[in-house]
Amino acid sequence: MGxxxxxxxxxxxxxxxxxxxxxxxxxxxxxxxxxxxxxxSRYITLADIRRLVTDKxxxxxxxxxxxxxITRSILLQVIAEQEHQGEPLMSQDFLSQIIRSxxxxxxxxxxxxxxxxxxxxxxxxxxxxxxxxxxxxxxxxDSIASLTQHNLERWRAVQEDIFKAMAGHSSNxxxxxxxxxxxxxxxxxxx
Length: 191
Fold this sequence. Notes:
By secondary structure, this protein is an alpha+beta fold. The chain is built from 5 helices and 4 strands, in the order βββαβαααα.
């Protein structure tokens, strides 16, 4: 799970038996809300789940009672916990835009865009790390700072375009509904 993938939800399951692959760590969630790592034979916390992700260890979280794969739900809990500690990664506006994208025509595009953006960022970080290996001159740090600034500007520009497209789609849908209801808008009623 350490790597973002655009694959079916049950990618870690064998199709025939509906069980986790043999090379995937299984974490069981018990009704008392505790997580049990079957490899380490101990109860673990969300911090341990985060460590599995950062160490790029494939795992699946199975609800002990229902046998459902609840990995995504647990990962969202890890994100929520991280957002409450220290400096948040996601702004309130960003989170609001994400929530607004659910159920809209843009939902698939937004999810795919975010996933591809994070993959690109990760790839660029790895490339920079490789090129910097053994080279620690001041020019190298200037290069990193310049590339980081450039990527941040590109990210912001693309993010603004996505949000404008989402807002435009939302405004067009609202205007269309208002016309269907015979309503020309709030100002038209007063004139």
